[in-house]
Specification:
With 466 residues, the chain is of the alpha/beta class. 33% of the residues lie in helices and 22% in strands. Bound molecules: adenosine-5'-triphosphate and magnesium ion.
Length: 466
């Protein structure tokens, strides 16, 4: 057969049209698509025959039942079966029900979403009516921009939280983790940070929160920033699939605004509950656990999510990510805390002992690090902070000694200074959500120290110890 006859030039316009039609029908977006039938049903997942050749891992399928159409995610593909985790719990599934391919889950964010609260599927849950979709469709399982095309992180910003602005200042496009045990103050600190002025938009993913806390967070704490905020909520009673999707939907919305050149603050509370949701989905699909019950997919999903934050390509804006990490039983070395600490550009450690003393926010200034702090501090501020840390360390290491009366003023000038100044520093760092935001944390600190005698200020830093 002469194959040259089959080149595109040789094809008649009718054949070209037929080819176009075939391409259109092959698109997962098109309503006519591949289908299969439910084969087995188990708690947490069901299997489908007839779709193995057509679907990819992570794509969505739609299951038709008596109560309507329900989405599910493909979590495992075998030669003749696919495993699907339903998005909504308790959907009625029957053997031989029809399941059709939907492709990647796509959303169309728009400016009209600001001030709204939605679920992981982008359906409004605030009772304020429908939301308008934008023109562009984005897959929620997008990948991060290539690292060499991304801008550099250069510009510091003020969070308004004194303990952070002094000891671990942040830059636009940074990724920061807040590590603490349960009930120590993570959500409260996140809500204080969500009020920072430096951002055009704030996108918040609340994962596995108690229903009561969601309204508190959104209505009480966001305040004026609510107008530029979008909250994506999956409460603790929702399916693991919805909890797993919430941060992915939220980061996709953040990417939409970043690509328009805006600076976006992306908050996740908490990443640990996102990891728990991935663990539940993976366990249901038979993936073996590798570390403390967590399957390998948790450790690939976490960097994939966090890498999507950061500075965008030239011409785009930035996504600054602030996420909370619940450390199980106050063990800061649990697998999720460990793996996220390596991915992030800084971590704030909250200590239960400080919360118990009433020192809120209970940030441990010695254990907290911002890897980009140097870009945010002036050289004088950097010197001052390093000196403050020496004083705090000296104060803390002699705490027991001082309690048993082993401290004599005059024997160690450094310790004398620490005893005089550290309680003042601790007082300056105290801040609750109702307090006025700090416009210049260093000025506040200088003012308080000036009130005591012989004080260091950023313009006249104390010399380092020899
Ligand atoms: N800055 C603060 N000022 C005053 N009180 C605070 C502050 N931060 C936290 N608290 C107190 O600590 C309690 C618990 O805080 P929060 O809910 O933020 O903790 P969490 O770490 O998010 O808890 P969970 O692990 O349950 O999500 C609050 O109800 C509040 O009483
Ligand atoms: Mg919380």
């Amino acid at each position: 057969m002469n194959t040259t006859l089959l080149t595109e030039d040789a094809l008649s316009p009718k054949l070209t049209h037929l080819g176009d039609l075939a391409k259109r029908y092959a698109s997962p977006e098109f309503s006519v698509t591949h289908g299969g039938r439910v084969h087995t049903i188990a708690a947490g997942h069901y299997t489908v025959r007839g779709l193995s050749r057509y679907v990819r891992l992570g794509e969505f399928v739609a299951h038709k039942s008596a109560t309507g159409i329900h989405l599910g995610e493909v979590v495992r593909v075998e030669p003749d079966l696919i495993y699907v985790c339903p998005i909504e719990p308790g959907e009625p599934i029957g053997i031989h029900d029809v399941v059709i391919r939907k492709g990647a889950f796509r959303i169309s964010p728009s400016d009209g979403w600001c001030g709204r609260t939605i679920n992981s599927l982008c359906e409004p849950i605030d009772g304020l009516g429908p939301i308008t979709e934008g023109l562009e469709r984005r897959s929620i399982s997008n990948t991060a921009p290539p690292s060499m095309t991304r801008q550099r992180v250069e510009n510091g910003f003020k969070t308004g939280v004194r303990a952070i602005d002094i000891f671990s200042p942040l830059c636009l496009g940074q990724r920061l983790g807040i590590f603490a045990g349960s009930g120590v103050g993570k959500s409260t600190l996140l809500s204080m940070l969500a009020r920072a002025d430096a951002f055009d938009k704030v996108v918040i993913a609340l994962v596995g929160e108690r229903g009561r806390e969601v309204r508190e967070f959104i209505e009480d704490t966001l305040g004026a920033n609510m107008k530029k905020a979008i909250a994506v909520v999956a409460t603790s009673d929702e399916s693991p699939m919805l909890r797993k999707m919430a941060p992915l939907t939220a980061v996709t919305i953040a990417e939409h605004f970043r690509d328009k050149g805006e600076n976006v603050l992306f908050i996740v509370d908490s990443v640990t509950r996102f990891a728990h949701a991935i663990r539940e989905v993976a366990t249901a699909s038979g993936e073996p656990p590798i570390a403390r019950g967590y399957p390998a997919s948790v450790f690939t999903e976490l960097p994939r999510l966090l890498e999507r934050a950061g500075p965008g390509p030239e011409g785009a804006g930035t996504i600054t990510a602030i996420i909370s990490i619940l450390v199980d039983g106050d063990n800061h070395n649990d697998p999720i805390a460990d793996s996220t600490r390596g991915i992030l550009d800084g971590h704030i450690v909250l200590q239960r002992s400080l919360a118990e003393e009433g020192r809120y926010p209970p940030i441990d200034p010695l254990a907290s690090i911002s890897r980009l702090a140097r870009k945010a501090w002036t050289p004088d501020q950097e010197k001052l902070v390093s000196r403050l840390k020496v004083l705090i360390h000296r104060f803390e290491e002699t705490r027991d000694l001082r309690l048993i009366g082993g401290y004599r003023p005059g024997a160690d000038p450094d310790l004398d200074m620490a005893v005089k100044q550290v309680p003042i520093i601790y007082d300056v760092l105290k801040q609750s959500p109702g307090d006025r935001e700090s416009l210049d944390a260093f000025a506040d600190l200088a003012g308080a120290l000036k009130a005591a005698a012989g004080v260091p200020t950023p313009s006249a830093p104390i010399q380092r110890r020899a």
